[in-house]
Amino acid sequence: MVQQRLAILGAGPIGLETALYALGKGYEVQVYERDMPGAHVARWGHVRLFSPWEMNRSPWGERAVREAGHELADAEAFPTGREYLDRYLLPLARLERLRGRIHEGSKVVGVSRRHALKGHYIGDEKRAEGPFVLLLDEADGERYVEADIVIDTTGVYDQPGHLGPGGLPALGERAADRLIERHIPDVLGTDRAQYEGKTTLLVGNGYSAVTSAHLLAKLHADAPETHVHWLLLDDAPPYAPMADDPLPERLALATFGNDAARGQVDGIAPVFGQLQRLELSNDGLVADVDLVDGTRTLELDRVIGNVGYKPDASLYRELQIHQCYASEGPMKLAAYLLSQSGGGGDCLAQTSGGFETLVSPEPDFYILGAKSYGRNSDFLLKLGFEQIEELFAGLQ
Ligand SMILES: Cc1cc2nc3c(=O)[nH]c(=O)nc-3n(C[C@H](O)[C@H](O)[C@H](O)COP(=O)(O)OP(=O)(O)OC[C@H]3O[C@@H](n4cnc5c(N)ncnc54)[C@H](O)[C@@H]3O)c2cc1C
Question: How many angstroms separate the CA atoms of 22 and 366, rounded?
Fold first, then answer.
């Protein structure tokens, strides 16, 4: 039997785990990674995961890394991103079985069908008769490669959202970009000088935002002239702490977040409204925030925007991918997620939806990992491992 060529886009946690699993199933696997394995995790290396080690390693990955002679960290401990990378993802990427299969510095620009344009063979099995073509940007130029099956695990981390009304850029936001951090900064480490003794506007009400708020509150305790305005849409408690939360880190953050939103945390002043305008001034920024009863002007040194991420759909623009109009995730999975929790609820209680939820009109093209959730931020690594098992069970 001819071995099927399987291309994996991105060597993050889910791309690496998929590669290892697919090799075990007999596929000819190639992984194309724009940067280095685990590149996105490396960028939030200073953040502690709220899921313990046992939820962050797949059974097959754990086995392979142990067999390669690495000692596994305590299953119940909570690693930082850096520890997760060093103690697990990099050993995984360096497994003998994956040698020569991970192409670092290989950016996937787009994927198409060699024999068909986007509008050809709608609902027709002829669509699957020719291979996929991938356009790659690499240090020594661009090239095409072919594959029979493509799995997109490129994540969402590099497409952060904008800060203005309804997700548009605030007026002046694009011009002020150099003073805006769009991820969780390492406030107590390498980025300290940018925040210590400064005034920062923090925008967002998810777990990234509360993590930034928590780090900034610690910096304030150490350097009291550090100030934060935390911009939230309204004065409802932004988090729903569960008293019996099995993840203590998450419970602590949710409780802290609600206290801070009530103005009960030193150094953090909540503001309720929408960012309207950012303007560069001589020594920083001026922000106009629309409140319920008027406008408030804030003088700032920096802005942290932690307002979520969007998937990059340009990679599969030439393919027939059915996307959800709300989350921009693949439609069947998005509908399943909505039916499971109504868009809310505890992400820990979720299960992946089975092979059918991973299928799109484009045959043999699948989106797994954080990107499969689109703008929905509930993705967990353990759900990605379930997706992998279900996908390959369905492909058999
Ligand atoms: C701060 C933070 C904390 C988190 N904490 C947890 C937690 O505690 N527990 C949990 O289960 N989940 C957590 N998550 C959610 C999720 O598990 C992670 O985002 C995880 O990294 C997702 O893995 P992934 O492989 O899907 O994508 P990513 O880790 O984003 O990897 C994508 C890879 O694709 C590469 N890539 C991107 N574009 C291209 C391209 N065009 N061509 C080639 N390569 C490309 C990137 O360089 C990257 O290596 C957290 C996320 C964040 C941001």
Answer: 13
Please indicate whether residue 107, judged by its CB atom, sits closer than 6 Å to ligand 1: yes
In the reported structure, the alpha carbon of residue 312 is separated from the centroid of ligand 1 by a whole-number distance in angstroms of 13
Provide the 10 A C-beta neighbour count for residue 240.
11
**CATH architecture for segment(s) 165-305:** 3-Layer(bba) Sandwich (3.50)
**CA 286–ligand 1 middle distance (angstroms):** 33
Strand order in the sheet with 284-291: 274-281, 284-291, 294-300
CATH 3.50.50.60 in the chain is located at 5-157+309-395, 165-305
The ipTM (two decimal places) reads 0.99
Tens of pLDDT, residue by residue over 241-298, are: 888 888 888 899 999 999 999 999 999 999 999 999 999 998 899 999 998 889 999 9
- Please work out, in degrees rounded to the nearest 5, the angle formed at the alpha carbon of residue 284 by the alpha carbons of 188 and 174: 95
How do residues 194-212 score in pLDDT, each as one tens digit?
Answer: 999 999 999 999 999 999 9
- What's the rounded Cα separation, in Å, for the pair 286 and 282? 10
**How do strand 132-138 and strand 141-147 relate by DSSP bridges?**
antiparallel
pLDDT band of residue 345 (cuts 50, 70, 90) is: low
- What architecture is domain 5-157+309-395? 3-Layer(bba) Sandwich (3.50)
Q: Is 248 helix (H, G, I), strand (E, B) or coil?
A: helix
Residue 50 CB–ligand 1 contact under 6 Å: yes
Query: Does residue 207's CB lie within 6 angstroms of at least one atom of ligand 1?
Result: no
